[in-house]
Amino acid sequence: MALPGTLEFERVIKRTKLTPLAIEVLKSRFPDAPDPVKKWLPSKPRWERVLPDLDVLTHELRALKKRRGKIVLYGHDDMDGITGLFVGLKILRNEGYTVVPLIPRREIETYGIRPGRLQGILEPGDLLLTVDYGCSAVEGVAWARRNGSSVVITDHHMLNPPLPDANGIIDPQPSGPPAADLAGCAVLYAALTSILPRYENDPQLLAATALGTISDRVSLSEWNRYLLHCFSLIRTDQLTEGLKLLMEEWPCRAGNWTGSMVRSHITSTIGKGYNSGISNMLDFMFSYDRRWCRTLWKQMVKSSEERGQLLSELVGRSMNLKDPEADAFGMIMVFMDDIPPGMGGTLASRLCRIHRRGTIVVTRREDGMLVGDTRSVGDWNMAGFLVSMRDAFSSAGGHYRAAGFSYESPDWHDLRELLLSHMAEYPTCPVPPPPHRSCGR
User: Fold this and answer.
1) Looking at residue 441, what is its pLDDT?
2) Whole-prediction pTM value?
3) Prior bond to 162 cis, omega within 30?
4) Exposure of 139 by Cβ count < 10 A (0-12 exposed, 13-18 middle, 19+ buried)?
5) CATH of the structural domain 319-425, one choice from 3.40.50.300, 2.30.30.240, 3.40.30.10, 3.10.310.30
6) Quick one: CA torsion of 283, 285, 288, 289, rounded to 10 degrees?
Protein backbone atom coordinates (compact mmCIF):
# COMPACT_ATOMS: atom_id res chain seq x y z
CA MET A 1 0.00 0.00 0.00
CA ALA A 2 1.10 3.56 -0.67
CA LEU A 3 1.54 5.32 2.67
CA PRO A 4 1.02 9.08 3.04
CA GLY A 5 4.30 10.94 2.67
CA THR A 6 5.95 8.30 0.50
CA LEU A 7 7.01 8.69 -3.13
CA GLU A 8 4.49 6.05 -4.21
CA PHE A 9 1.72 7.94 -2.45
CA GLU A 10 2.71 11.11 -4.30
CA ARG A 11 2.54 9.20 -7.59
CA VAL A 12 -0.97 8.05 -6.76
CA ILE A 13 -1.95 11.63 -5.98
CA LYS A 14 -0.56 12.80 -9.31
CA ARG A 15 -2.30 9.98 -11.19
CA THR A 16 -5.66 10.67 -9.57
CA LYS A 17 -5.24 14.47 -9.86
CA LEU A 18 -6.39 15.03 -6.29
CA THR A 19 -5.64 18.32 -4.55
CA PRO A 20 -4.16 18.56 -1.03
CA LEU A 21 -7.61 19.58 0.25
CA ALA A 22 -9.16 16.48 -1.30
CA ILE A 23 -6.50 14.34 0.37
CA GLU A 24 -7.34 15.86 3.74
CA VAL A 25 -11.04 15.11 3.16
CA LEU A 26 -10.22 11.47 2.37
CA LYS A 27 -8.03 11.18 5.47
CA SER A 28 -10.97 12.39 7.57
CA ARG A 29 -13.38 10.07 5.80
CA PHE A 30 -11.15 7.00 6.22
CA PRO A 31 -9.16 7.77 9.40
CA ASP A 32 -8.10 4.14 9.97
CA ALA A 33 -7.06 3.43 6.38
CA PRO A 34 -3.28 3.35 5.74
CA ASP A 35 -4.02 4.45 2.17
CA PRO A 36 -7.14 6.66 2.13
CA VAL A 37 -6.86 7.29 -1.61
CA LYS A 38 -6.84 3.58 -2.40
CA LYS A 39 -9.73 3.08 0.01
CA TRP A 40 -11.72 5.68 -1.91
CA LEU A 41 -10.63 4.62 -5.41
CA PRO A 42 -11.98 1.13 -6.14
CA SER A 43 -10.43 -1.52 -8.30
CA LYS A 44 -11.99 -2.74 -11.53
CA PRO A 45 -15.49 -4.16 -10.86
CA ARG A 46 -16.32 -7.74 -11.81
CA TRP A 47 -19.31 -6.85 -13.92
CA GLU A 48 -20.02 -10.46 -14.82
CA ARG A 49 -20.65 -11.29 -11.15
CA VAL A 50 -23.26 -8.64 -10.53
CA LEU A 51 -25.04 -8.05 -13.84
CA PRO A 52 -27.68 -10.73 -14.44
CA ASP A 53 -28.34 -12.37 -17.81
CA LEU A 54 -25.02 -11.51 -19.46
CA ASP A 55 -25.00 -15.08 -20.73
CA VAL A 56 -28.36 -14.44 -22.39
CA LEU A 57 -27.02 -11.39 -24.24
CA THR A 58 -23.92 -13.35 -25.29
CA HIS A 59 -26.10 -16.15 -26.65
CA GLU A 60 -28.46 -13.78 -28.47
CA LEU A 61 -25.61 -11.89 -30.14
CA ARG A 62 -24.02 -15.12 -31.37
CA ALA A 63 -27.34 -16.48 -32.63
CA LEU A 64 -28.16 -13.19 -34.34
CA LYS A 65 -24.89 -13.23 -36.27
CA LYS A 66 -25.67 -16.72 -37.54
CA ARG A 67 -29.18 -15.84 -38.73
CA ARG A 68 -28.03 -12.42 -40.02
CA GLY A 69 -30.71 -10.45 -38.28
CA LYS A 70 -30.36 -6.86 -37.18
CA ILE A 71 -30.29 -5.16 -33.78
CA VAL A 72 -32.87 -2.49 -33.00
CA LEU A 73 -31.13 -0.45 -30.30
CA TYR A 74 -33.89 1.29 -28.39
CA GLY A 75 -32.89 4.21 -26.16
CA HIS A 76 -34.23 7.00 -24.03
CA ASP A 77 -34.19 10.57 -25.39
CA ASP A 78 -31.97 12.10 -22.74
CA MET A 79 -28.20 12.24 -22.25
CA ASP A 80 -28.09 8.89 -20.45
CA GLY A 81 -29.97 7.20 -23.27
CA ILE A 82 -28.13 8.97 -26.11
CA THR A 83 -24.68 8.23 -24.71
CA GLY A 84 -25.79 4.62 -24.21
CA LEU A 85 -26.87 4.49 -27.86
CA PHE A 86 -23.42 5.78 -28.82
CA VAL A 87 -21.77 3.01 -26.79
CA GLY A 88 -23.96 0.32 -28.33
CA LEU A 89 -23.61 1.58 -31.89
CA LYS A 90 -19.83 1.94 -31.71
CA ILE A 91 -19.22 -1.54 -30.31
CA LEU A 92 -21.87 -3.52 -32.17
CA ARG A 93 -21.35 -1.94 -35.58
CA ASN A 94 -17.61 -2.46 -35.18
CA GLU A 95 -18.41 -6.15 -34.57
CA GLY A 96 -20.20 -6.34 -37.90
CA TYR A 97 -23.82 -6.11 -36.75
CA THR A 98 -26.47 -4.08 -38.53
CA VAL A 99 -27.79 -1.74 -35.82
CA VAL A 100 -30.80 0.57 -36.10
CA PRO A 101 -30.99 3.21 -33.32
CA LEU A 102 -34.45 4.25 -32.17
CA ILE A 103 -35.57 6.94 -29.71
CA PRO A 104 -39.08 8.28 -28.98
CA ARG A 105 -40.32 11.74 -29.86
CA ARG A 106 -41.58 13.31 -26.65
CA GLU A 107 -44.04 15.66 -28.31
CA ILE A 108 -46.14 12.93 -29.95
CA GLU A 109 -45.17 9.55 -28.47
CA THR A 110 -45.89 7.81 -25.20
CA TYR A 111 -43.05 6.82 -22.90
CA GLY A 112 -42.13 3.13 -23.11
CA ILE A 113 -41.73 0.41 -25.72
CA ARG A 114 -44.80 0.87 -27.87
CA PRO A 115 -45.72 -1.59 -30.65
CA GLY A 116 -46.72 1.25 -32.96
CA ARG A 117 -43.21 2.65 -32.79
CA LEU A 118 -41.62 -0.71 -33.62
CA GLN A 119 -44.02 -1.70 -36.40
CA GLY A 120 -42.14 -2.00 -39.69
CA ILE A 121 -38.73 -1.67 -37.97
CA LEU A 122 -38.44 -4.69 -35.68
CA GLU A 123 -38.85 -7.82 -37.78
CA PRO A 124 -38.99 -11.55 -36.95
CA GLY A 125 -35.48 -12.80 -36.18
CA ASP A 126 -34.24 -9.38 -35.04
CA LEU A 127 -32.92 -8.55 -31.56
CA LEU A 128 -34.50 -5.70 -29.63
CA LEU A 129 -31.78 -4.40 -27.30
CA THR A 130 -32.70 -1.53 -25.00
CA VAL A 131 -30.56 1.00 -23.16
CA ASP A 132 -31.85 2.98 -20.15
CA TYR A 133 -35.27 1.59 -20.97
CA GLY A 134 -37.66 -1.30 -20.82
CA CYS A 135 -37.85 -2.86 -17.35
CA SER A 136 -41.55 -1.96 -17.05
CA ALA A 137 -42.49 -2.47 -20.73
CA VAL A 138 -44.68 -5.54 -20.23
CA GLU A 139 -46.95 -5.00 -23.24
CA GLY A 140 -44.23 -3.83 -25.63
CA VAL A 141 -41.93 -6.76 -24.88
CA ALA A 142 -44.83 -9.22 -25.21
CA TRP A 143 -45.62 -7.79 -28.66
CA ALA A 144 -41.99 -8.07 -29.78
CA ARG A 145 -41.74 -11.68 -28.61
CA ARG A 146 -45.01 -12.60 -30.36
CA ASN A 147 -43.61 -10.92 -33.46
CA GLY A 148 -40.76 -13.43 -33.50
CA SER A 149 -38.02 -11.15 -32.13
CA SER A 150 -35.68 -11.67 -29.21
CA VAL A 151 -35.57 -9.02 -26.47
CA VAL A 152 -32.75 -8.18 -24.06
CA ILE A 153 -33.30 -5.23 -21.75
CA THR A 154 -30.44 -3.23 -20.27
CA ASP A 155 -31.75 -0.73 -17.75
CA HIS A 156 -31.11 0.78 -14.33
CA HIS A 157 -34.62 1.77 -13.31
CA MET A 158 -36.59 0.24 -10.46
CA LEU A 159 -37.69 -3.36 -10.96
CA ASN A 160 -41.34 -3.20 -9.96
CA PRO A 161 -43.32 -6.38 -10.76
CA PRO A 162 -44.80 -7.46 -13.01
CA LEU A 163 -41.62 -7.55 -15.08
CA PRO A 164 -41.68 -7.97 -18.86
CA ASP A 165 -41.15 -11.46 -20.25
CA ALA A 166 -37.91 -10.59 -22.06
CA ASN A 167 -35.26 -13.15 -23.01
CA GLY A 168 -32.99 -11.36 -20.55
CA ILE A 169 -33.07 -8.35 -18.22
CA ILE A 170 -29.66 -6.86 -17.41
CA ASP A 171 -30.47 -4.50 -14.56
CA PRO A 172 -28.24 -4.19 -11.47
CA GLN A 173 -31.07 -3.18 -9.16
CA PRO A 174 -31.38 -6.65 -7.50
CA SER A 175 -27.72 -6.41 -6.44
CA GLY A 176 -28.37 -3.30 -4.40
CA PRO A 177 -25.94 -0.45 -3.78
CA PRO A 178 -23.65 0.47 -5.36
CA ALA A 179 -24.85 -1.45 -8.39
CA ALA A 180 -28.20 0.30 -8.44
CA ASP A 181 -26.43 3.64 -8.90
CA LEU A 182 -25.10 2.85 -12.37
CA ALA A 183 -26.55 4.99 -15.14
CA GLY A 184 -28.26 3.29 -18.06
CA CYS A 185 -25.34 3.98 -20.41
CA ALA A 186 -22.95 2.44 -17.86
CA VAL A 187 -25.06 -0.73 -17.64
CA LEU A 188 -24.78 -1.23 -21.41
CA TYR A 189 -21.07 -0.34 -21.36
CA ALA A 190 -20.44 -2.85 -18.56
CA ALA A 191 -22.49 -5.56 -20.30
CA LEU A 192 -20.88 -5.22 -23.72
CA THR A 193 -17.30 -4.82 -22.44
CA SER A 194 -17.77 -7.90 -20.26
CA ILE A 195 -18.64 -9.87 -23.40
CA LEU A 196 -16.08 -8.03 -25.56
CA PRO A 197 -13.33 -6.90 -23.13
CA ARG A 198 -11.12 -5.40 -25.84
CA TYR A 199 -13.40 -2.33 -25.78
CA GLU A 200 -13.23 -1.57 -22.05
CA ASN A 201 -10.45 1.04 -22.34
CA ASP A 202 -11.73 2.69 -25.50
CA PRO A 203 -11.43 6.48 -24.90
CA GLN A 204 -14.57 7.32 -26.86
CA LEU A 205 -16.68 4.83 -24.92
CA LEU A 206 -15.31 6.07 -21.59
CA ALA A 207 -15.99 9.70 -22.52
CA ALA A 208 -19.57 8.96 -23.54
CA THR A 209 -20.21 6.81 -20.46
CA ALA A 210 -18.81 9.49 -18.14
CA LEU A 211 -21.01 12.16 -19.70
CA GLY A 212 -24.13 10.01 -19.45
CA THR A 213 -23.32 9.05 -15.86
CA ILE A 214 -22.89 12.64 -14.68
CA SER A 215 -25.87 13.87 -16.69
CA ASP A 216 -28.21 11.33 -15.08
CA ARG A 217 -27.39 12.53 -11.53
CA VAL A 218 -26.60 9.07 -10.20
CA SER A 219 -24.68 8.73 -6.97
CA LEU A 220 -20.90 8.66 -7.41
CA SER A 221 -20.55 5.38 -5.54
CA GLU A 222 -17.61 3.10 -6.12
CA TRP A 223 -18.50 1.63 -9.51
CA ASN A 224 -19.10 5.09 -10.92
CA ARG A 225 -15.89 6.37 -9.34
CA TYR A 226 -14.04 3.59 -11.15
CA LEU A 227 -15.58 4.56 -14.49
CA LEU A 228 -14.94 8.26 -13.96
CA HIS A 229 -11.35 7.60 -12.91
CA CYS A 230 -10.76 5.62 -16.13
CA PHE A 231 -12.31 8.52 -18.02
CA SER A 232 -10.00 11.04 -16.34
CA LEU A 233 -6.95 9.24 -17.78
CA ILE A 234 -8.01 9.23 -21.43
CA ARG A 235 -6.24 11.25 -24.11
CA THR A 236 -8.56 13.65 -25.87
CA ASP A 237 -6.63 13.38 -29.15
CA GLN A 238 -8.15 9.89 -29.48
CA LEU A 239 -11.70 11.26 -29.53
CA THR A 240 -13.98 12.30 -32.36
CA GLU A 241 -14.24 16.05 -32.87
CA GLY A 242 -17.71 16.03 -31.29
CA LEU A 243 -16.56 14.25 -28.14
CA LYS A 244 -13.40 16.35 -28.05
CA LEU A 245 -15.49 19.53 -28.05
CA LEU A 246 -17.59 18.19 -25.17
CA MET A 247 -14.42 17.45 -23.21
CA GLU A 248 -13.17 20.98 -23.91
CA GLU A 249 -16.43 22.28 -22.48
CA TRP A 250 -16.14 19.91 -19.47
CA PRO A 251 -15.31 22.32 -16.61
CA CYS A 252 -12.07 21.68 -14.71
CA ARG A 253 -11.70 18.20 -16.22
CA ALA A 254 -8.01 18.08 -15.34
CA GLY A 255 -8.62 19.19 -11.76
CA ASN A 256 -11.59 19.32 -9.42
CA TRP A 257 -15.11 19.39 -10.80
CA THR A 258 -18.60 18.57 -9.60
CA GLY A 259 -21.53 16.93 -11.33
CA SER A 260 -23.52 20.17 -11.07
CA MET A 261 -20.78 22.04 -12.95
CA VAL A 262 -20.86 19.52 -15.80
CA ARG A 263 -24.64 19.52 -15.98
CA SER A 264 -24.70 23.32 -16.01
CA HIS A 265 -22.08 23.67 -18.76
CA ILE A 266 -22.90 20.66 -20.94
CA THR A 267 -26.11 18.77 -20.14
CA SER A 268 -28.31 21.84 -19.79
CA THR A 269 -26.81 23.30 -22.98
CA ILE A 270 -27.83 20.21 -24.94
CA GLY A 271 -31.19 19.94 -23.19
CA LYS A 272 -33.96 17.51 -24.04
CA GLY A 273 -37.34 17.77 -25.65
CA TYR A 274 -38.39 21.27 -26.75
CA ASN A 275 -35.80 23.25 -28.76
CA SER A 276 -32.96 20.97 -27.64
CA GLY A 277 -29.97 19.45 -29.38
CA ILE A 278 -30.64 15.91 -28.16
CA SER A 279 -31.82 14.69 -31.58
CA ASN A 280 -28.47 15.70 -33.10
CA MET A 281 -26.23 14.27 -30.38
CA LEU A 282 -25.53 10.89 -31.99
CA ASP A 283 -24.30 12.57 -35.18
CA PHE A 284 -22.44 15.10 -33.04
CA MET A 285 -20.59 12.50 -30.96
CA PHE A 286 -19.61 10.46 -34.03
CA SER A 287 -18.54 13.48 -36.09
CA TYR A 288 -14.96 14.32 -37.10
CA ASP A 289 -16.06 17.62 -38.66
CA ARG A 290 -14.95 20.22 -36.13
CA ARG A 291 -16.48 23.19 -37.96
CA TRP A 292 -19.91 21.53 -38.06
CA CYS A 293 -19.67 20.53 -34.39
CA ARG A 294 -18.67 24.04 -33.34
CA THR A 295 -21.54 25.60 -35.32
CA LEU A 296 -24.06 23.18 -33.82
CA TRP A 297 -22.72 23.79 -30.31
CA LYS A 298 -23.20 27.55 -30.70
CA GLN A 299 -26.78 26.93 -31.78
CA MET A 300 -27.35 24.73 -28.71
CA VAL A 301 -25.93 27.41 -26.40
CA LYS A 302 -28.37 29.96 -27.84
CA SER A 303 -31.30 27.57 -27.53
CA SER A 304 -30.29 26.75 -23.95
CA GLU A 305 -30.48 30.42 -23.01
CA GLU A 306 -33.98 30.61 -24.48
CA ARG A 307 -35.05 27.46 -22.59
CA GLY A 308 -33.66 28.89 -19.37
CA GLN A 309 -35.78 32.01 -19.73
CA LEU A 310 -38.85 29.90 -20.52
CA LEU A 311 -38.19 27.67 -17.49
CA SER A 312 -38.07 30.72 -15.21
CA GLU A 313 -41.46 31.78 -16.55
CA LEU A 314 -42.90 28.28 -16.02
CA VAL A 315 -41.60 28.15 -12.44
CA GLY A 316 -43.20 31.52 -11.69
CA ARG A 317 -46.56 30.44 -13.11
CA SER A 318 -46.48 27.07 -11.37
CA MET A 319 -46.12 28.69 -7.94
CA ASN A 320 -49.72 29.86 -8.25
CA LEU A 321 -51.01 26.53 -9.53
CA LYS A 322 -49.98 24.16 -6.72
CA ASP A 323 -52.80 21.81 -5.80
CA PRO A 324 -53.93 22.58 -2.22
CA GLU A 325 -55.13 19.03 -1.51
CA ALA A 326 -51.80 17.58 -2.61
CA ASP A 327 -50.15 20.08 -0.25
CA ALA A 328 -52.01 18.38 2.60
CA PHE A 329 -50.13 15.17 1.78
CA GLY A 330 -46.82 17.02 1.66
CA MET A 331 -46.72 16.84 -2.14
CA ILE A 332 -46.36 19.47 -4.83
CA MET A 333 -48.74 18.75 -7.71
CA VAL A 334 -49.14 21.09 -10.65
CA PHE A 335 -51.17 20.83 -13.86
CA MET A 336 -50.15 23.15 -16.71
CA ASP A 337 -51.75 22.70 -20.08
CA ASP A 338 -48.94 24.06 -22.22
CA ILE A 339 -45.54 22.87 -20.96
CA PRO A 340 -43.27 22.33 -23.99
CA PRO A 341 -42.28 18.70 -24.67
CA GLY A 342 -39.41 17.51 -22.50
CA MET A 343 -39.58 20.40 -20.02
CA GLY A 344 -41.98 18.78 -17.55
CA GLY A 345 -39.18 16.86 -15.87
CA THR A 346 -36.97 19.96 -15.69
CA LEU A 347 -39.82 21.92 -14.11
CA ALA A 348 -40.52 19.09 -11.64
CA SER A 349 -36.84 19.01 -10.65
CA ARG A 350 -36.78 22.76 -10.06
CA LEU A 351 -39.96 22.71 -7.96
CA CYS A 352 -38.70 19.72 -6.00
CA ARG A 353 -35.49 21.55 -5.11
CA ILE A 354 -37.30 24.78 -4.23
CA HIS A 355 -39.90 23.18 -1.95
CA ARG A 356 -37.95 20.12 -0.79
CA ARG A 357 -41.00 17.97 -1.43
CA GLY A 358 -42.05 15.21 -3.78
CA THR A 359 -43.36 16.81 -6.98
CA ILE A 360 -45.75 15.78 -9.77
CA VAL A 361 -46.02 17.93 -12.89
CA VAL A 362 -48.72 17.04 -15.41
CA THR A 363 -49.26 18.51 -18.86
CA ARG A 364 -51.22 17.76 -22.02
CA ARG A 365 -49.51 16.44 -25.12
CA GLU A 366 -50.43 17.55 -28.66
CA ASP A 367 -52.72 14.56 -29.11
CA GLY A 368 -54.61 15.34 -25.89
CA MET A 369 -53.01 12.62 -23.74
CA LEU A 370 -51.92 13.63 -20.24
CA VAL A 371 -48.29 12.97 -19.32
CA GLY A 372 -46.60 13.39 -15.96
CA ASP A 373 -43.08 13.85 -14.64
CA THR A 374 -42.27 13.26 -10.99
CA ARG A 375 -39.33 13.94 -8.67
CA SER A 376 -38.69 13.10 -5.03
CA VAL A 377 -36.37 14.09 -2.19
CA GLY A 378 -38.04 12.27 0.70
CA ASP A 379 -38.51 8.53 1.00
CA TRP A 380 -41.36 8.66 -1.53
CA ASN A 381 -40.60 5.96 -4.10
CA MET A 382 -41.86 7.70 -7.22
CA ALA A 383 -41.41 4.69 -9.49
CA GLY A 384 -43.14 2.39 -7.00
CA PHE A 385 -45.98 4.89 -6.49
CA LEU A 386 -46.69 5.13 -10.22
CA VAL A 387 -46.23 1.45 -11.03
CA SER A 388 -48.61 0.55 -8.21
CA MET A 389 -51.20 2.42 -10.30
CA ARG A 390 -50.10 0.91 -13.61
CA ASP A 391 -53.62 -0.32 -14.46
CA ALA A 392 -54.68 3.32 -14.73
CA PHE A 393 -51.76 4.35 -16.96
CA SER A 394 -50.75 3.42 -20.48
CA SER A 395 -47.14 3.47 -19.27
CA ALA A 396 -45.33 4.22 -16.01
CA GLY A 397 -41.85 3.70 -14.59
CA GLY A 398 -38.55 5.27 -13.64
CA HIS A 399 -36.28 5.79 -10.64
CA TYR A 400 -36.91 5.94 -6.92
CA ARG A 401 -36.30 9.71 -7.22
CA ALA A 402 -37.57 10.39 -10.75
CA ALA A 403 -40.32 8.74 -12.78
CA GLY A 404 -42.95 9.42 -15.39
CA PHE A 405 -46.30 8.22 -16.69
CA SER A 406 -48.80 8.56 -19.54
CA TYR A 407 -52.59 8.68 -19.06
CA GLU A 408 -54.81 7.89 -22.03
CA SER A 409 -57.76 10.05 -20.97
CA PRO A 410 -57.61 13.84 -21.52
CA ASP A 411 -59.63 14.44 -18.32
CA TRP A 412 -57.36 16.12 -15.76
CA HIS A 413 -60.04 16.08 -13.05
CA ASP A 414 -60.27 12.28 -13.18
CA LEU A 415 -56.49 11.91 -13.08
CA ARG A 416 -56.24 14.38 -10.19
CA GLU A 417 -58.73 12.42 -8.09
CA LEU A 418 -56.92 9.21 -8.87
CA LEU A 419 -53.54 10.60 -7.79
CA LEU A 420 -54.90 12.21 -4.63
CA SER A 421 -56.74 9.08 -3.50
CA HIS A 422 -53.62 6.98 -4.02
CA MET A 423 -51.45 9.45 -2.07
CA ALA A 424 -53.63 8.76 0.95
CA GLU A 425 -52.94 5.02 0.64
CA TYR A 426 -49.27 4.94 -0.32
CA PRO A 427 -47.19 4.35 2.83
CA THR A 428 -44.23 6.70 2.42
CA CYS A 429 -43.19 10.24 3.27
CA PRO A 430 -42.92 12.83 0.46
CA VAL A 431 -41.28 15.38 2.77
CA PRO A 432 -37.88 14.65 4.35
CA PRO A 433 -38.49 14.61 8.12
CA PRO A 434 -36.41 16.83 10.44
CA PRO A 435 -33.44 15.12 12.15
CA HIS A 436 -34.37 12.55 14.83
CA ARG A 437 -38.02 12.47 13.79
CA SER A 438 -40.00 9.87 11.92
CA CYS A 439 -42.68 10.49 9.32
CA GLY A 440 -45.69 9.40 11.31
CA ARG A 441 -47.45 7.82 8.36
Assistant:
1) 42
2) 0.85
3) yes
4) middle
5) 3.10.310.30
6) 60
